[in-house]
Design a protein that fits this description.
The protein contains 17 helices and two strands. Strand 1 and strand 2 form a beta hairpin. The protein has 485 residues and is mostly helical. Belongs to the major facilitator superfamily. Proton-dependent oligopeptide transporter (POT/PTR) (TC 2.A.17) family.
């Protein structure tokens, strides 16, 4: 019996393969470190030096956070390619986890912008590689048609949200009580724990996780390495000569991701390997790609505008104790843990009567716009005067919007994918999130406490407008989807 078959028949982790515990752990600690660091990153960048920060202008600081998030999702595309063509998912995940830990250690120990530069690049590239491959390896633990598969993915995603919940609580507490570098240090310790338990249990993952599905011919490997070296050299040169700097980083990432997305669509649509029906389905994905980018440009402002809002406008006084800014980042994972199963059960119960995928995209985009309009009643209430409960309510709307669109996007990209471009279509879904996340940093540059009414109303109404346009286009999109619901 092969090791992969043994792994798939294993029931030692609550009836699931032992390897699931391993992946649950590494993903939980990775999300702990990622969201823990992201919870304190914006205020570290714009707090004054005497407050322990770097003293950057707020718009540059929030732009960097958005650009960084965009790079994480762009790296997910690169991580998937490395796994598919060079290393296989298991080894790519391992090296990505090592890179994340190096990044968090750099943030904790290196002072100033040097720590930010080295740390964020390592964490972004590592998180992208881990994000795209952990899910793929969970899939290899189950044989075709195994009834436990859906439950296994549910357990795995609970790990994601558990890490996302606890991370900001602990790093925020460390930052507010001791200082930023202890907060970043906690993120590094969390990642070290995740990497340690993963290394011990790598043998539980079987041979299938190590396979390279579409190996790059050895004649092209040197070319791939050369291209990577040239790319790193170009990026370094642009940064060191000041062409790319904190003030324009969000713009650069937006344009780069937009250009890569256009090239990806053109490569797929002009390929001789796809049929007429497949081409039509790829075309139907374009409006959903754009709606997804608009959605994430608002949703990811949890880590840009909402972070600044929490710091400057939210009443965080809890019976005389001031709650750390990053704790607000833990609200969304709680809502996801509670409401994801409810919404999944609702769609299952509705069966054929549930909204079509384009309609779910409409709901997600419109609800996201509504969430921003809900800030308007609190405009002008003064410094740290907005009620905490109101923000909790707004973040609830964020979560319901996310549950309408985010899980559906990944599923849709696989349903509409041409046979020859399965991985690339999943990559396009990640690129829509990357583009939106980088845009969340770009938009945040226009946010100021003094003019927040205009900001919230403009951003909210534009998102609702995009949702309405998508709604009007549903009949046309459904025809292009050629039978995919």
């Amino acid at each position: 019996m092969s090791t992969s078959t043994e792994v798939q028949q294993d029931t030692r982790f609550f009836g699931h393969p032992r390897g699931l515990a391993n992946l649950f752990g590494v993903e939980m600690w990775e999300r702990f470190s990622y969201y823990g660091m992201l919870g304190i990153l914006p205020i570290y960048l714009y707090y004054k030096v005497e407050q322990g920060g770097l003293g950057l202008a707020q718009e540059s600081a929030l732009g960097i956070v958005g650009a960084y998030g965009g790079l994480v999702y762009l790296s997910a595309v690169i991580g998937a390619w490395v796994a598919d063509r060079l290393l296989g998912s298991e080894r790519t995940l391992f090296y990505s986890a090592v890179l994340i830990m190096i990044g968090h250690i750099s943030l904790a120990l290196l002072p100033g912008l040097a720590g930010i530069g080295v740390g964020l690049v390592c964490v972004a590239v590592g998180s992208g590689g881990l994000k795209s491959n952990a899910t793929a390896i969970v899939g290899t633990l189950y044989a075709e048609g195994d009834e436990r598969r859906d439950a296994g993915f549910t357990i795995f995603y609970m790990g994601v949200n558990l890490g996302g919940f606890v991370g900001p609580l602990l790093t925020g507490l460390a930052q507010s009580e001791v200082g930023f570098h202890l907060g970043f240090g906690l993120a590094a310790i969390g990642m070290a724990l995740g990497l340690g338990q993963y290394t011990i249990g790598r043998k539980n993952l079987g041979e299938k996780a190590k396979e390279v599905p579409n190996p790059l011919p050895s004649s092209q490997r040197l070319l791939a390495v050369g291209a990577a070296v040239v790319l790193v050299a170009v990026v370094l040169a642009l940064v060191l000569t000041g062409v790319v700097h904190p003030g324009n980083l969000a713009d650069v990432v937006v344009w780069v991701v937009a250009a890569i997305s256009v090239v990806y669509f053109l490569v797929i649509l002009t390929s001789s390997k796809i049929t007429g029906v497949e081409r039509s389905r790829v075309l139907s994905f374009i409006p959903m790609f754009l709606a997804s980018a608009v959605f994430f440009s608002l949703y990811q402002q949890q880590f840009t505008v909402v972070a600044a809002y929490t710091d400057q406008r939210l009443d965080r006084d809890l019976f005389g104790w001031v709650m750390p800014v990053s704790w607000v980042s833990s609200i969304n994972p709680v809502f996801i843990i509670v409401f994801a199963p409810i919404l999944a059960a609702l769609w299952t119960k509705l069966g054929e009567r549930q909204p079509s995928t384009p309609m779910k995209f409409v709901l997600g985009t419109v609800l996201m716009g509504v969430a921003f309009l809900l800030f308007l009643p609190m405009v002008g209430s003064g410094k740290n005067a907005s009620p905490l409960l109101a923000l909790v309510g707004i973040l609830f709307v964020f979560t319901i919007a996310e549950l309408c669109l985010s899980p559906v996007g990944l599923s849709l990209s696989t349903k509409l994918a041409p046979e020859a471009f399965r991985t690339q279509m999943v990559a396009l879904n990640f690129l829509s999130i990357s583009l939106g996340t980088a845009m969340s940093g770009k938009l945040a540059e226009y946010y100021t406490v003094d003019d927040e009414g205009a900001y919230f109303s403009t951003v909210g109404l534009v998102a609702i407008g995009v949702g309405v346009l998508l709604f009007l286009g549903i009949p046309f999109i459904r025809r292009l989807m050629k039978g995919v619901h």
